[in-house]
Amino acid sequence: MSEFTVGESEFRLDGRPVRLLSGALHYFRVHEDQWGHRLATLRAMGLNCVETYVPWNLHEPVRGRHRDVGAVGRFLDAVRAAGLWAIVRPGPYICAEWENGGVPAWLTGEAGPRARTRDARWMSPVRDWFGRLLPEIVPRQADRGGPVLMVQVENEYGSYGSDTGYLAELAALLRAEGVTVPLFTSDGPEDHMLTGGSLPGVLATVNFGSHARAAFGTLRRHRPGGPLMCMEFWCGWFDHWGGEHVARDPGEAAGALREILECGASVNLYMAHGGTSFGGWAGANRGGELHEGEFRPDVTSYDYDAPVDEYGRPTEKFHRFREVLADYADGPLPDPPPPLAVLEAPAEAALTGWAPLDAVLEALGGPETVTPMPPAFEDLGVTRGLVRYAVDVPGPRQPYPLSVRGLRDLATVYVDGEPAGVLTEAEPGLKAPVAGPARVELWVESLGRVNYGPRGGEPKGLTGGILHERQYLHRVRARGLDLDAFEEGVARVPFRDLPEGGGPGLYRGTLTVRGAGDARLELPGRTRGFAWLNGFNLGRYWSAGPQRSLYVPGPVLREGANELWLLDLAETEADRPPRLLPV
Q: 60, 97, 154, 156: which one is catalytic?
């Protein structure tokens, strides 16, 4: 057992001063069989601690239905086995470029603007969740022989709200559930963020990517005493679909890290190893200074231009950081672990079956609802996936413009069974008018819920209605298709022969592998959708880029035949087969 305390100017471990050299690694973005390798790599970079968030929605996607909360405890055990300490950030909100900031969609759908406040409609589910989660953390605190040194209260709350009574209630809840190690908050180094997001008697830390002396100067105006810590040193950044890949010069980033340490501060690299947003869990942002503008969904890769890349390989940034961190280490740094096995030889998929989207929805979808106005995804219990909305245009009537209000995020439209166009929030109307009578179907996809800013928790689907000219079309039939349904239900899908020329639908095929190991899946000719290998959801693919392939962790593959599913949501080029390549 160890005692970790927060002093007037330093952290102390068993009575001795200690500087935390930490790095973020999200257990939920790394295959469990590879945790040990990634942790050993971080230790070799010179870190003595690892930090992780906990995404509530991953573990409770449906209210009251929990799954694998024990992964949190197993990860902390792996951290201890790797000889590292741990910082845990349990939320309930985490941001993290993760779907809805880690908050279940069923809760934001119910709580609305009361989210992240003391309102009972928010706090009651939070109490239930912490009652389930904290037994994985409390026994693994440092004062009980575990690795956990600190636990965060909420996350960057000053960027969102000012209900400090809510923060105090969360801190009291953590204590009541058995958290005895120091608590902390983290916010941007700005006055309004620190006043809204910090608590008296709780360590305040700051998040930034550069100008450490100025950032810590702002913190000192609010907190004259206490250890300095950058809880998120943004040493890289994330990418959006349709944007450019973001990278930071390794030498410049290493210089910014050295400045933090020269201030006498502790640091947490965000990210040390980013990993992958498997399963379609990537979040989204809103553009503009107030985060109210253009919708910008995040790519599946969370490489983050981190010092350890998405495939677990040390980069130039790793070696530059190691040079800096070695000056602050207690002794010689260990060598990086041997690289993990990679795929021995490329493999080309043989696609053997296909089912149209209607057949997939019939086999795996939820019940159909009929309502005057279209229900949101949250009303249908859809976390990630798509909803088919169907409505009739009465007739006879002249051709009029057809448009939607409040579309989130993308709708593929069919009129009397024929493709009629793709709608987005920015372009919500069909180019050609529609005459009545006609049957209109809109297959609406969620591209990821906003994870930061005032638009967090916004609903998905057709949230404002369907218009023909200026008239609402009522009696909307809606049926949802959640991504989780594929994990256990694909056997119910009635596959048929491949369609001529390709097309949307669920494709099934086989990849024959020799020498299983880390690989990447390329999908030439395919526009947008999701890919599974042996039932493991690799995430979203999209020809919009900048991401061009999906990472396949070696433990997902097996020697010989491997089953591939592709849920294509747009037109495809059928003569270009998927292929598996070494990383």
A: 156
The model's pLDDT over 170-215, given as tens digits with 9 standing for 90+, comes to 999 999 999 999 999 999 999 999 999 999 999 999 999 999 999 9
The residue annotated as part of the active site, out of 51, 154, 232, 458, is 232
CATH number of 20-285+293-326: 3.20.20.80
Tell me the domain boundaries of the chain: 20-285+293-326, 347-355+499-582, 357-483
Question: Has 232 been annotated as catalytic?
Answer: yes
Residue 200 amino acid letter = P
Kindly give the residue spans of alpha helices, DSSP state H, lying in 337-419.
357-364, 377-380
Length of the chain: 583
pTM: 0.97
- Cα(8)–Cα(224) distance, integer angstroms: 9
Domain 357-483 part of CATH 2.40.50.140: no
Token pair of 190, please? 């700005």
3-state secondary structure 254-268: HHHHHHHHHCCCEEE
pLDDT, tens digit (0-9, with 9 covering 90-100), for 431-449: 999 999 999 999 999 999 9
Residue 49 has pLDDT above 90, yes or no: yes
Q: What is the CATH number of domain 347-355+499-582?
A: 2.60.120.260
352: left (phi over 0), alpha (psi -120 to 50) or beta: alpha
Concerning whether 522 is annotated as a catalytic residue, the answer is no
Is 578 within 8 Å of 566 (Cβ atoms)?
Answer: yes
Two tokens at 407?
């579309």
- Can you tell me the distance from the alpha carbon of 187 to that of 184, in angstroms, rounded to the nearest whole number? 10
Cα angle 502, 503, 506 (rounded to 5 degrees) comes to: 100
What is the band of 488 on the pLDDT scale with cuts at 50, 70, 90? confident
Do 357-483 and 347-355+499-582 fall under one CATH topology?
A: yes
